[in-house]
Amino acid sequence: MTIHDLDTPAIVVDLDIMERNLRQMSDYAAAHRLRLRPHTKTHKIPALGRRQIALGAAGLSVAKPGEAEVMMAAEPAEILVAYPTIGARKLERLAKLAHGTRISIAIDSLECAHQISAAAQAEGVTLGVLVEFDAGLHRVGVRPGAELQGLVQAVAQLPGIDWEGISFYPGHIKSLDETGLAAIRAAGALLEETVSDLKSHGLIPRIVSGGSTPTWAHSHTLTAMNEIRPGTYIFNDKNSVGIGSCAWSDCAASILTTVVSTAVSSQAIIDGGSKTFSSDRLVWSSEVSFGEVVGYPTAVFHKMMEEHGFLDITRTGHTFHLGDRVRIIPNHICVAVNLHERLYGVRGEQVEEIWEVAGRGKLQ
Fold first, then answer.
1. Which of 53, 174, 257, 338 could be bridged to 270 by S-S, CB 3.0 to 4.6 A?
2. How confident is the model at residue 267 (pLDDT cuts 50, 70, 90)?
3. What pLDDT does 316 receive?
4. Which pLDDT belongs to residue 284?
5. Would the pTM of this model clear 0.70, i.e. be above it?
6. Longest dimension (CA), the chain
7. What share of the chain is helix, strand, coil (3-state, %, to 5)?
8. What architecture (CATH level 2) is domain 16-235?
9. Measured distance CA(53)–CA(74) in Å, rounded
10. CATH 2.40.37.20 fits 3-8+245-356, yes or no
11. How far is CA 287 from the centre of its chain?
12. pLDDT, tens digit, for every residue of 321-355?
């Protein structure tokens, strides 16, 4: 099968680029003695999780119990649920998984820790816990200092729980210009202070987990951190390029679409809209764009309806025809993958692999 045989819209993954991205991150982590526990929210495919493990990943990260259940097929040594998991049913499911692999959960409340303790004791297992602190995103995580120290001390005393360390997510850093680099330095200083404070109270974290795709190449400068959890790096996307964490040549995934209408002058309609790309906007620009049109950088993907994508082709100097195939690198590949049933791994024009998106829609 070749790429020309694929029906559209379809996500195609350039295997050469993907494999290069995986190797680059693996080599970086090894060179800087960082544990790599990649977040599988981007690909949601156990076969790709196995590739990450084969290249040295210590385990895998997920957001929800449903994703953890799916990723058991990758046979990881450990799974981190990098999300505060609340509710007896969810925690019961995770406790059952702990019979087959190490399960850890990032939390930011004592209430959640008590629920984890109860689930672990009921199942006769031990669950790992990372206590999350807020490094600047103001999404989840307790304040560093006394609040973090108090929560760690309380969590470490609970039965059925193994306090492993702390976690954070520098998601507020969305550029690698001087402002972004200054924010990375500030995060590093905060982390040093936070870890030093814990140690001064006899609380020594085995794991200090953080990192992101935008900041991955600077992870080694945060010297108190010993684990990174990048996700998007496997494919990359338009936001990754705009932030400065990769080049267009590092974007492994694109969405293959077909031109279905040219009835309106200076416009081409493609067979993919918000149900294909998601409505995520650029994080680094106010420009209205939903993706980069490969081969036509002056085309503007400026509007979407559910099944229609609007391309402004005024400045391209190119005449598009019905049936033309157009590849688009989406703004945010993680969300786009969750909208598709399968991905197609291609080398050149040959389709070498077809992956079912097993973690698609696993929101619980």
1. 257
2. very high
3. 97
4. 85
5. yes
6. 70
7. 35, 25, 40
8. Alpha-Beta Barrel (3.20)
9. 8
10. yes
11. 23
12. 999 999 999 999 999 999 999 999 999 999 999 99
